[in-house]
Amino acid sequence: MARMECTHAGQNTDVLFRFLVQSAKDRAIFGIDLQGHIISWNPGAEHIKGWRAEEVLGQHFRMLFPEDYRQQGRPETELKEAFETGHYQGEEPRQRKDGSLFIADIDLWLLRDDVGQPCGFVKVTQDVTERKLAEEALRQSEARLSAILASLDEGVTLHDEHGTIRFANAAAERRLGLSANRLQGRTPFDPRWEAIREDGSPYPGEEHPHMRALRLGENVSGDVIGIHQTGGSRIWLSVNARPLRTPDGRVVGAVSSFFDITARKQAEEERAALLARERASRAEAEAERRKLYAIFDQAPVGIAIFQGPHHVIQFANPVQCRFWERRCRELLGRPLIEVLPEELGPSIIEKSCDPVFQTGESRVFTEERFEFTRPETGERVERYFNFTHVPMRDMAGAVEGFMAVAWDATDAVRAHQRAAVLAQQLQDRVDFEQQLIGIVSHDLRTPLNAIHLTVSAMARRDELDARTAQSVLRIQSAVHRAVRLVSDLLDFTQARLGTGIPIAPRASNLHQVARQVLDQVDAAHPGRTLRVQERGDATGEWDSERIAQVVQNLVTNAIKYSPEASPVQVTTRGEDGWVCLSVHNQGTPIPQEKLPGIFEPLQRATSEVGSTGRSVGLGLYIVKQLVDAHGGTVDVASTPREGTTFTVRLPRHGDSRGQ
C-alpha cells in the first residue's frame, strides 16, 4: 500500500498506523488526493471491493460508485462536503469489481499537513449489507410474528412484572369479550373476571398461571379457569404461561396463551378432537425431524447431535462417521468418549464439549490439530479440522445437548504451510540477489574511478597523436557509461532494499536544471536536435542533482527510442503549486501491453535500440523512484499519431521522504 503522509510522525507511530490499516480486514481504508485519485489501498479494501491495489492506485475514486451515482456527480459532492466541513458520512450503495452492489457505511475525512493545509482525504468504508439485511429480516420477522399472533385462534396476552396486561391479540379480545384497549391495564386481581376453579371455588389472582410464572420463574401449563365475559356468559379457558427473561436470566414479564375449552366441558367429542390434533402435531414434528436428518445425511460436512452430559451420540451423518473412521450403526447411543481415540478423547471432551453443555454457549474452533495412532495398523495420523459446537435446548430453555458441524481442513492447512515455505524461499532469493547487486555495483566504483583518473590525465597530455587521443576519448566515454550504470545499480539497490534513494532539497529552478542537462546531452549527441520550451515560474525546493538525473534519463531515453532525424521536445513550465517537465519524441510508440510496467526495473519500452544504446533497463525505474521521493508523479502517453511523451509533475516544496 502506498504511503500517504501529511504530517511528520515518529517511526513507531508510522509503523503502528500502517499495521492498523493493513490489519483492518473488515474495513476498506484508502487514501485519496485532493483531486479524488486513489493513492493507497489496504487489504480490507481489496477484500470488500474486489480490486487489487495495482488496479486502483492513481484512478479516480468515482470508479467505486454505481453508474447512476457517477452521473449524478455524487463522488464530487462527497469530496466537496468533506473538504468544506472536514468530514463526510453516509450509508449508500457502492460497486464491487464484479459489478455487484453492496451497502456501505462511509466516513470520508479531510487530512491536513503540519501547517493546517488540506493535503488529501482518507476514506473508511464498511460493508453493512448483512446488517441491513438482518434489520430487514428482523422487521419482516416482527411483521410475520404480528400476523401470526393476529391469525392465531389461541388468545395471547403479554404481562409486565406486576402481571398487568400490556398486549392482547385478536383471539384474546374475542375470548375475553373486551377490546385490546380495555384489556390493557387489567390484572388477575380484577374482580370483574369473577374467576373460579373447575370445582366452582374462587380462583385467587396470585394463583393465576402468569403470576406463578412471574413468581417462580417456571412454565405453567394447562390451568383451567372459568371467567365471566363482559356482557356475556361464563366461559372456560385452558391457560399456559411462560416467564420472559433478559439475557442475564432476570424475569421481566410473562406471556400467557389460552384457548376456550367451554365446548370440551360440554361434549367429550371436543376433547377427542383436541387429542387427535395433538397427536397429529407430534407426528408432524417427528416427520420434520426425519426430514431434517435426511438433509443432514446429504451435507458435505460432518454433522452430529449429542444428548446429555455424557454427550451420547443421537445422530451422525456419513461424513462425520468417516471422520471418526467408524460405521454409523456402531455409533448411535454411545458416549462420545468411547468413539474418540484414547489419546485424544479426554482433552477433546474437556476443551470443546463440556463447556458447551455446561455454559450453553457456542464454541468455534479453527484449524485444530489432532494427532493420534490408528490401533489397527499403528499408523501415526495428523489431521486438522474446523468445527462448531452449538447448544440445543428443551422447551424450558435448559441445555439438553449440542450439535456439532465439522469439516476437514487438513489439505488447506498443508497448502498454507507449503505456500509459506515457498514464499520465504522466494524472499530469501530476492534479498540475496538485491544484496549481490548492491555489493557488486559498489565495489566496481573503485577500479572505474582509477580508470577515469588515468584516462583524464592521459587526455590532458599534448603529445598524444590523433589516433591515440581518439582511443582515449572512447575509453573515457566507456568509463562514463560504466559509471552511470554503477550509479543506476546503486540507486536501484537502495530503492529495492527499502532504504530509498536519498535526496537533499534546496532552492532550485527547473528551467536552469533542464538547460544545463541539455547542454551536456547536446555535446554528447551533436547530430540530434533538442528543442526547449520554457513557460512560467519554475522555481521550487528539490534536489537539483537528482532532478537533473531525471531530466537526463528521460532525454537520453527519448534519443535512444527515436529516429536520428527527428527532434526531441523538452518543455518546462510552472503551475499553481507545481512545476512540470515534459519530454516528447516521435519514435516507435510503446506497445500498450508494456505501458503498465514501463516504470518497473529491468524493463524496456521496445527492443529497437542499437548496441551502443543498450542498458540494463533501470533508467525509467530510477526516474519513478526519484519523482516519488520528491512527492511528485510521472506519467507516459504513447500513440502512433502523437508519439511518446513522459510528463513529470513536482510540488514546489518537494517531499521529505527521501531525506
Automatic annotation (TrEMBL):
The segment annotated Disordered runs over: 640-659
Q: How does it sit in the membrane?
A: Multi-pass membrane protein
Q: Name one GO cellular component term.
A: membrane
Catalytic activity as recorded in UniProt: ATP + protein L-histidine = ADP + protein N-phospho-L-histidine
Task: Respond yes or no to whether keyword Transcription is given for this record.
Answer: no
User: Which BP terms from GO are recorded?
Assistant: osmosensory signaling via phosphorelay pathway; regulation of DNA-templated transcription
User: What keywords were assigned to this record?
Assistant: ATP-binding, Kinase, Membrane, Nucleotide-binding, Phosphoprotein, Transferase, Transmembrane, Transmembrane helix, Two-component regulatory system
Residue ranges constituting the PAS domain according to the UniProt record: 13-86, 141-187
Q: Which residues form the signal peptide?
A: none
Q: Localized where?
A: Membrane
What is the E.C. number? 2.7.13.3
KW ATP-binding (keyword) present: yes
Q: Which GO terms describe its molecular function?
A: ATP binding; phosphorelay response regulator activity; phosphorelay sensor kinase activity; protein kinase activator activity
Question: Ranges for the PAC domain?
Answer: 88-140, 218-273
Query: Which branch of life, at top level?
Result: Bacteria
Ranges of residues in domain Histidine kinase:
439-654
The record's section on NCBIfam families has: sensory_box
Name-wise, this protein is histidine kinase
Q: What is the lineage of its organism?
A: Bacteria, Pseudomonadati, Myxococcota, Myxococcia, Myxococcales
